[in-house]
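Researcher: Quick test of sequence recovery. C-alpha cells follow.
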C-alpha cells in the first residue's frame, strides 16, 4: 500500500498511513464479501472461529440463537435491547458471552442481544454467527483495503488520514429526526432530484426506501398501481407491499452512483427512530461497490475509493 499522510490535528502529530496501519494498537482483520456485499470477519469463540457481519446500522452487537446452541449461558441477563433492524425488529434478551476476540481485540464478558436464526436469509448454506454493531465500532475508525481483503480497526484517538485526491468524501451526521442519540450515523442522499437523509447500514444487503413518505413521484405511482392490483385481487389483509426499483442517479456530495437497486418497503417498525411519515433511505453495503473505503465515526466522515483504487495521491498539498 502506498504512503499517504495524516493531517496534523490539534495536539496530533502527522504520520504516514502505512506507519499508522502498522502501529501496535491498530488491528488488521481479514474479511470476505458475503451475500450481496456484506463484510464478514472471523471472530474467535468457544466454538471455534465463526463469522460476524460488520453492521453500522445496529446499535448493539448481536448473535443468532441457532448458531449458539450449547454455548449460551443458562440464563440471560435481566436486560433487554430494542432492535430496529429491517428483519429482526423488536425487543430481544441480552446475554453475556465470554472468550470472544476479533484478532487481538479481546472481548471479555461481551453483552450481546440474542436474535432468532437467519436460516435462508443470505441464500448460502453457512450462516453468520452474529453482527458487530456500533457499541463496539464507535471506538474505532475503519479502513477497508479491498485489494487485500483486509479491514483495519484504528483506535478513534488517531486523526483522519489525508485521502487521495480522487477519493470522495461524504459527511456523516446524527439522526435528523430524533434528538435521542442511539449511535447511528446518517448522511444526505440525493435520489434523482430528491434530497433525503440516509442511514449508513453496512448490515443491509440492499438500499431501501420507505413507502409512506417518499417524495419521488415515480415511487408514489408504483405504490398506487400495486394497491389497485391488490384491491382487484380482493385482498382483505393489511396492504404492506415490497418492491424493487433501479435508480439511475444517486449521489451524496461529490460521490455519484450511476445505477443503484432499491428495495421499497414500510418502515413502521422504525418509529422509535422518529422516521414514521418522513423521507428516509437506508444505504446498504452495496454503496461501496466492493471497493476500498474509510469511515471515521468520531469526525463524522467517510471516504469512497474510485472505480480504480488509487492511493498514491494525497488530498493535502
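Model:
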Amino acid at each position: 500500500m502506498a504512503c499517504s499522510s495524516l493531517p496534523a490535528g490539534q495536539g496530533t502529530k502527522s504520520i504516514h498511513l502505512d506507519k499508522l496501519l502498522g502501529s501496535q494498537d491498530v488491528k488488521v482483520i481479514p474479511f470476505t464479501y458475503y451475500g450481496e456485499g456484506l463484510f464478514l470477519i472471523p471472530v474467535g469463540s468457544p466454538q471455534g472461529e465463526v463469522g460476524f457481519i460488520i453492521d453500522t446500522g445496529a446499535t448493539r452487537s448481536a448473535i443468532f440463537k441457532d448458531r449458539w446452541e450449547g454455548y449460551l449461558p443458562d440464563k440471560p441477563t435481566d436486560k433487554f435491547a430494542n432492535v430496529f433492524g429491517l428483519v429482526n425488529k423488536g425487543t430481544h434478551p441480552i446475554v453475556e458471552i465470554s472468550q470472544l476476540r476479533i484478532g487481538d481485540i479481546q472481548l471479555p464478558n461481551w453483552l450481546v442481544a440474542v436474535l432468532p436464526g437467519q436460516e435462508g436469509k443470505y441464500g448460502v448454506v453457512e450462516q453468520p454467527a452474529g453482527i458487530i454493531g456500533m457499541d463496539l465500532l464507535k471506538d474505532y475508525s475503519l479502513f477497508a483495503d479491498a485489494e487485500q481483503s483486509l479491514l483495519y480497526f484504528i483506535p478513534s484517538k488517531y486523526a483522519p488520514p489525508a485521502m487521495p485526491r480522487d477519493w470522495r468524501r461524504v459527511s456523516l451526521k446524527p439522526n435528523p429526526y430524533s434528538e435521542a442519540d442511539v449511535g447511528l450515523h446518517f448522511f444526505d442522499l440525493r435520489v434523482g432530484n430528491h434530497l433525503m437523509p440516509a442511514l449508513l447500514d453496512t448490515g443491509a444487503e440492499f438500499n431501501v426506501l420507505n413507502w409512506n413518505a417518499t417524495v419521488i413521484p415515480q415511487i408514489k405511482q408504483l405504490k398506487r398501481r400495486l394497491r389497485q392490483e391488490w384491491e382487484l385481487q380482493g385482498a382483505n389483509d393489511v396492504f404492506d407491499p415490497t418492491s424493487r426499483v433501479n435508480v439511475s442517479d444517486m449521489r451524496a456530495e461529490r460521490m455519484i452512483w450511476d445505477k443503484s437497486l432499491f428495495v421499497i418497503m414500510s418502515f413502521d417498525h422504525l418509529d422509535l427512530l422518529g422516521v414514521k411519515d418522513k423521507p428516509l433511505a437506508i444505504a446498504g453495503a452495496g454503496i461501496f461497490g466492493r471497493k476500498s473505503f474509510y469511515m471515521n465515526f468520531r469526525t463524522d466522515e467517510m471516504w469512497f475509493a474510485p472505480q480504480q483504487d488509487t492511493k498514491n495521491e494525497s488530498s493535502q498539498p
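The two ends are 20 Å apart (CA to CA).
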